[in-house]
Design a protein that fits this description.
Elements lengths: L16 E5 L4 H12 L3 E6 L2 H13 L3 E6 L3
Parallel strand pairs: 1-2, 2-3
Length: 73
């Protein structure tokens, strides 16, 4: 399923939900991809909704499940 290289991805998160804040860039962005590729349904949150939507589109295109939420922590 994943189109992301996943070093050390030996865990299955199918049926789990992950919330990733700061997902519009950097580590949060990558964590969201890895969690989705591991089977988690991912809720991504950040201020930059344009970048969040691009991330959601990428995750969905790879077969994952994701939703974006505008959030300023």
């Amino acid at each position: 399923m994943p189109d992301f290289p996943l070093p050390n991805a030996s865990f299955d998160l199918t049926g789990q939900v992950a919330l990733v804040t700061g997902a519009s860039s950097g580590l949060g962005h990558r964590f969201a991809q890895v969690l989705a590729a591991s089977g988690a349904r991912v809720a991504v949150a950040a201020r930059r909704t344009d970048k969040l939507q691009a991330l959601v589109d990428t995750i969905r295109a790879a077969g994952g499940q994701a939703e974006a939420f505008a959030l300023d922590v």
